Amino acid sequence: MNICVTGLGLLGGSFALGIKSKRKDVRITGVDISIENRATAQRIGIADEPGEFESAVAKSDFVVIATPVSSVAELVRKALDRIKESAVVIDLGSTKGLICQEVAGHPRRGRYVAAHPIAGTENSGPESAFPTLLSHKMMIICDREKSDPEALRVTEEIFKDLEMKISYMASAEHDRHIAWVSHLSHISSFALGSTVLDKEKDERNIFNMAGSGFSSTVRLAKSSPDMWAPIFSQNSRNVSEALDAYIKKLQLFKKIIDENDEISSHNLMKEANEIRRILTGILKSE
Amino acid sequence: MNICVTGLGLLGGSFALGIKSKRKDVRITGVDISIENRATAQRIGIADEPGEFESAVAKSDFVVIATPVSSVAELVRKALDRIKESAVVIDLGSTKGLICQEVAGHPRRGRYVAAHPIAGTENSGPESAFPTLLSHKMMIICDREKSDPEALRVTEEIFKDLEMKISYMASAEHDRHIAWVSHLSHISSFALGSTVLDKEKDERNIFNMAGSGFSSTVRLAKSSPDMWAPIFSQNSRNVSEALDAYIKKLQLFKKIIDENDEISSHNLMKEANEIRRILTGILKSE
User: Fold this and answer.
1) Which residues in chain A have their CB less than 8 angstroms from residue B137's CB?
2) Residue A219 in 3-state DSSP?
């Protein structure tokens, strides 16, 4: 099976390494606008050969688009224009609504499967990729009824080879939910990092006192702006709503602290402790 | 050496387990207002024997107060009233300014050393304690000039036995800095957990889509409200200032997203990426 991976970063690279470790019959052509990424991907074994998008897509059985979401719809359409009749195109973007809308009218829409893996780290680029990133993680397939059953079957087989759990959802619902449990936590972390870095300009050595709790909360602030700026744009309505609720909660917390209302402060935290139930679930599933 | 540990939770328990693993000559008396915690602490080897505060303090060479910060000043004063002439009292609270003020007038102030270890987890209670929690972590000693040189020496020897790095700071400066790199990140995490839990009431199964990034950001929301409510009260002015800056940053981020200003969004995240430098430093030091 010839697989074309376009976008040789954390997700595309890990997909390639993962599927190569599971199936002997795959040959990966690596496509990336960065010459450096293409070279790195080949050197570290993500791609068997580098390729140009149009020719690589034309000869592939399976095309994975793993670029920033701003370029996904266009690349999916271009790929659908060029693929063999039996080939399939998927993407791995963190937004699904706009992409699905923008490819909706394509005559070969059925050959496209919209997917989003609930997996990632704060690192980016081909060198951050590793073969087990996707193992045992959830892959959400959106608007499955828009994909040909056979294209869906081929895709699901590959996801199963990667030992992923598959889940189905409407693209609009996906975007609404993911804003709260992924996009918002990235913003909270970027903003926290930025706030404390601003403060460091006045109070040097402030970070000498930072420990593992701070590290954990601010870890996602290391994430790639190239990936995340288009995600926030594409999902702006849902992200803005989630962010509004978060700001209101923080304002309430601030009011409680300013009023020295220790009972309300305690209650708010007690409610937040309920997150333990959720986190236990996430850990179990990984 | 007879050591009295008052407050047999994560920090007090880990202090006791740590020093017992490093020194053979110590005997720990465990004091806690909870009968259950006292029993657990003895069962799992934190304390060699349970004790009542007044009598335990009177017979000890070294007294550690590891209770919520709201009770620290009073317990320090009571301990100073009762200890042997050569004994030392320390606390491990996350705020230092108010505590130092409240013990300032005590005739035996010199026997007290105000300390704060940059160490912790999101768990609490004696069963969360482990002997290496404090190893290689930073212990901040505040207002050292207020402690007798000999009391300081005894204390520092114990911290060195625990393989801690010692740092010195004025209590006011400690509270100002710790608000940004510890207290604020706890609030950001409590508020994030609480916000998404609120949303879950409308959108069930929302957490099915949460992954390791969300877990990391919201981990501190599991922390004990009994510990944290008094911390935010005691350091309310600094915490409120930090929280205000954080809310303003989030409001800016929201405005940028609402205006679909992808360049500013990218720039804000690019600046936040600088946190990588800090986190590398924290990891190296642990």
Assistant:
1) 211
2) helix
